[in-house]
Every structure is written in C-alpha cells, then in structure tokens.
Amino acid sequence: MDKETRAAKSAAAATSSAAAFGAPCWVSLMARDLEAAQDFYGAVLGWRFRKGRLGDQFSVAFHQSTPVAGIGALAPQLQIAVAWTPYFAVTDTDEAAARIRERSGTVAVGPLTFSLGRGALASDRDGAVFGIWDGELIPDWHSWRKRTPTWLRLRTRNAFEAAIFYGEVLEWACERPGCCEVSYEEDEVVLHSDGHVLARLSSGAEEAVPDPMIQPRWHIHFPVKDVDATADAAVKNGGFVLVRRSTPHGPETTLCDADGALFTVTSRQFLE
Q1: Phi-psi region of 50 (alpha: psi -120 to 50; beta: other; left: phi over 0)
Q2: CB atoms closer than 10 angstroms to residue 139
Q3: C-alpha distances out from residue 143 to 3, 73, 127, Å
Q4: Are the CB atoms for 219 and 152 separated by under 8 Å?
Q5: Over the stretch 75-96, which tens digit does the pLDDT of each residue have?
Q6: CB 211 within 8 A of CB 21
C-alpha cells in the first residue's frame, strides 16, 4: 500500500462516525425560517454561513474559520418545537435506534438516509431529545472537537441512570478500543475521551414542570467574549433572556431565539 492510499484511508477513518463512536459529533437547529435564523445567530453570535452538503435547506455556521453548528429549515408539516439538538456518532444507526427502544427511549424520526450517512432523532427515558448519526463527519473532526466553540450539558432527573442509558445506547465505557470514558466529578457525570471533556450530566431535572430550565434536556453552550453584550444583542434581535447566573467560571445566560429555541452563552472557553 503506497503512502497516498494510506493517507486517504486515514483521512476517511478520521471523519467517519465509526472512528468517534459514542462522542457528540455535531449540534443542529431545525428552524421554521432558515434565513431569519441565520440573521439572528449572525447578529448575536457573529456567525457566518455556508450552504451545507445536505441540500439547499441546510447551512453550516462558522465562527471565524471553525464550523460550529448546522441550521436547517423545518418542514412545515412537522409540528414540533424548534430546539437545538446534539448528535452522537454511532457505528450503525439502526442498531443504536433499536437499543434506544429496548431501553424505553423513543425514536421520533428515522432512521433516515442522507447523502452523507444515516441519522435519527430520539429522546431518552426522561424526554431529553438527541440525535444519532452514522456516516461522514466534518473533515478533520478530531481537531474540530478540540477547538470548536460549543459544549454540552444534560439536565436530567438522575445523572447516574441517564449515564447508564446513554452508555448502553452509545457504547460509553465499554470494552471496545476508542470508546468514551465516564467519570464522576463534583456531583456530575462527566463524559471524556483522550483527556478531553465532551459533556457533563447533572441531576435535578423534573418532567412535569412548565419551566424549560428544569425540564430534562440537552443544553447547548456557546462561549462568547461578553455574555451581557450577547444577551442584549439577542433581545434586540427578537429573542429574550430566560436566566442569568454566576458560576465559579464566570457568568452564564440562557437565551431563547426568536423561534423559541434555547441556548446558553458562557464566558468559559470550554468544559475544562
């Protein structure tokens, strides 16, 4: 095998979900108005957009030169809430979807076939929505994971039970080489790989409450230079502030965009 062939195979493996199984591999927003969503996040977070490879109704958001997230147009016939959703890499979407159902989770959409792979939208036993993806990831995914300005936190009823659910579905802390590891730190379950924190799971959420901050859900965090200025920009562009809070790492504010999708801006540079 020549060097060019080996390099091509190595690059393909590095951008395949099989090489990153169990890890969060993307975050995406399905908006009712794609252009309006781009205008909002461009004004609030300074993102720029390029057409995605999934079609005209999908775009990729960039922070400087780094891809951050996907935004797509929600089909009019789908009467579902607009929300930010994390996607996790799997080796086989159909098998992962079966494991979700076997463990009392719900597969709401899919698995569906796209040009780049197969995906599905699901929820865990407490109702937190997430996606699974089997196929091509963005180029040089491992480098992107370490520098992308986004991170995840699951607010759930019981973090240990949630970790068992996701561990069995996504093969966390299993015997397969390269799997994601799980630890317990400061009253949270922490997902990490190669010394890099991928997500945190926290207990205390409640299902039957109207407050979206208490309901079980995956929260998407975007670090920004000035949390207050970003919140002001969100309000100016049709969004609103849900919660402002101080943390040992600096201020955080949870916002809603003009369509009602929650996201959090934080002064932290990443999870560590």
Answers
A1: beta
A2: 11
A3: 22, 28, 31
A4: yes
A5: 666 667 789 999 999 999 999 9
A6: no
